User: Fold these one by one.
Assistant:
Number 1:
Amino acid sequence: MSQTKILLDESEIPTHWYNVVADMPNPPAPPLGPDGNPIGPDALAAIFPPGLIEQEVSAERWIEIPEEVREIYQLWRPSPLYRAHRLEAALGTPAKIYYKHEGVSPAGSHKPNTAVAQAYYNKQVGIKRLATETGAGQWGSSLALVGKMFGIEVRVYMVKVSYEQKPFRRSMMHTWGAEVFASPSEQTESGRKILAEDPDSPGSLGIAISEAVEEAASRKDTNYALGSVLNHVLLHQTVIGQEAKKQFEIVGDYPDMVFASCGGGSNFGGAAFPFFADKAAGKEVRLVAVEPASCPTLTRGHYAYDFGDAVGHTPLMKMYTLGHDFVPPGIHAGGLRYHGDSALVSQLYNEGLIEAMAVHQLGTFEAGVQFAQTEGIIPAPESSHAIRACIDEALKCKETGEAKTLFFNLSGHGHFDMASYDKYFSGELVDYEYPAEAIDKALHHLPKVAMA
Ligand SMILES: *Cc1c(COP(=O)(O)O)cnc(C)c1O
């Protein structure tokens, strides 16, 4: 009987994070200030601690993981790599399918991997409070979880539509001791401004980021924490891909293709970048970011300088973007709604070194249900994007008879997303393609400096 769970000992938790910048053929496009000139690391000092700023701009290949962070990782890492025997059998594919299960963390997703590190570096410099945003609640709950571990107060601006539709993520954050506000809120200038224009605004990640950044910038004891997009966040997530590589070694296999769902890019970067190191060294491996057709940032967005938030508080980052004022269609149930994408992921995609594809929501839920009914684990709707893409590739293999090795990151479980599953079962969900006019329109809202 061939192995189903491929496990590592706690002593094999990676000792270093892997920085993909060291293997990129070109240096990353620098973030720009409001005047259109590259910003220095100091520009970030109002809201981030020095340890994270160093990582944000580092080109070192390996960055040591502090002992205290590794000790907390021991609560759920190394995460298991599974061979999806039962899914393979159901598909009748000659392909071998593997997935890494990041849903084993206390918050149920990959996000605590960076939350621990971010809290650690903030604690080091005496920060007492962290402000952040959350969409569906995975990031907010991950930061809430580690806030308690480091004695840091956590304040979460939660996108209003999720705040109302996902009460149990809110309860999780409360259980771990965080404060949660529906965004746009009356707590900040940014929130008040948006509410004045649109009292019924459902909120967006971009708006919630504006609120959290404003709060962090205006208080000395408070910093900001972001759950995706930034270089240091992707860096922290590379424990996923590094462990996976060791686990593949144990079974003497190696993926032909790596799939990961992509919102802001940390899940993709975390799973795929350690394999990119091999690709940069000449190995053949295809790395595929999977996004929703209703928020098709990489596949249909503009590659340009844009703000990371809705109001324009952040530096400009060169990335694929649907425009910083993008408000995702309310009809979309599966997360991954950020208007932009990691600058690193964007640049690698622009240079043709990684791939991206968009999938529709009905097919995504169908794949999630098929996975749950074969492998048992109910996947987060975000993760189901990667499952959809992986199943489609496995079905292609069935046609061609190729026995490819396919790997996807199961970024989280879906236990708090059952309302979305119910909507799928009751036929309330439909496929929705983000309209081309909206994408064209966004081009006119890009900051002027982007055109320089
Ligand atoms: C946040 C999240 C994602 C998307 O991660 P990004 O790093 O923003 O691309 C995927 N899956 C789950 C379960 C998540 O919580």
Number 2:
Amino acid sequence: MDRTFTTIIEPFRIHSVEPLRMTTPAERSAAIEEAGFNVFALRSRDVLIDLLTDSGTGAMSRDQWAAIQHGDESYAGSPSWFRFEAAVKDLFPFRHVIPTHQGRAAEKILFSVLGGPGKVIPNNTHFDTTRANVEASGATALDLVIAEGHDAAVLHPFKGNMDLDRLENLLGEHRGDVPVVMLTITNNSGGGQPVSLANIRATSEICHRHGVKLFLDACRFAENAWFIHEREEGQEHREIADIVREIASLADGMTMSAKKDPFGNIGGWLALNDDALAEDCRNVLILTEGFPTYGGLAGRDLEALAQGLSEAVQPDYLRYRIGSTAYLGNALLAAGVPVVQPIGGHAVYLDARALLPHIEALHYPGQALAVALYVTGGVRATEIGSVMFGRQPDGTEVAAPMELVRLAIPRRTYTQSHIDYVVEVVTAVAGEADSLRGYRMIYEPKALRHFTARYQPLE
Ligand SMILES: *Cc1c(COP(=O)(O)O)cnc(C)c1O
């Protein structure tokens, strides 16, 4: 008899362990003060459960560690490169694969070739590094996610979808100024929400009718394909890899951070079909990253990523991965904590605006919540709100569309009991929300200010 059990079990067992260090609230208060109240400035040994990011923080498998031993560090034409290239092309059959040390290097190369003053580059929602690289080239970054994507509480199966009418209008009016349309799957800065296959198809059709290229920011392609498999009519019988290949077939290229779904601790790539554009990009690659058969990576990294790509699309893993994230989000909802719904793929996003209505946007409610999670329980999370997106290219500061705090779940790293502990900590902080105070920023750098800003608590 085939019974169904409800406990989420990790589809792996532990082979090697890393110790976690316990700290007291007093120690954490001192640590965060010394860090200028910026969780990015903490030492990770002072953090118990580190949900700052799912980027590069996943656990590699036995088979990835074994693959590392096959790393061939030849400068040119290493077998590790050919294994990596084949693994990428198996899922994303673009003509050219350009390896980079991480996703932003792929973005930097692409936008330094395609961007520039007067250019407009739309996306469903630009990720912070994507927006920063578009703007650094002098181009304008536009977010065209559907209206539902800006409302933390509204339920929609594909809240990462591109607003097709706005895209159509933009390309009608500015066609000559739009060198490429980006589509982020899943939409990280918009709550980790997926994009439907139908929306990717329609976006592709609009772009190509206007003669504009479509590139994927595909960091969480496997999670997005899993949501399509689970939520989109007619997709439930397909293999995940097959859905991924169809997504790739609708685009002209991609930028990728291999620190996400491919289980890399480092890595990325740019892939594309256009020969002339690929040549321009390779020329920048050689200046900034390395020779085209290793780019920014060691042979052993290329091997680990080739193996990781095959593990990323396995259904047992994805069922556990998405199930465990949903478990955290649903437990918080049940405890009355406002979170972005539906629950995203790699993270649960707390709605700091709803939880802390007494803290105004430019006193950074998300920042206040992130500090409280750390001091209360040693849980590190990141603000995605007016700290991250408030500073405009013209120097003004405005409120972001949403004030979120992201609990990003590293892949295969924490157990379900760690997740239960996080539920307890967040619930405890939410119970004392009225006592939290806002912050004033006392230092900020020119770009990507959330990484190095320093703060003072308001009285
Ligand atoms: C992480 C990420 C990037 C940048 O990749 P890095 O490897 O951190 O440079 C770009 N886009 C999205 C959607 C991401 O999640």
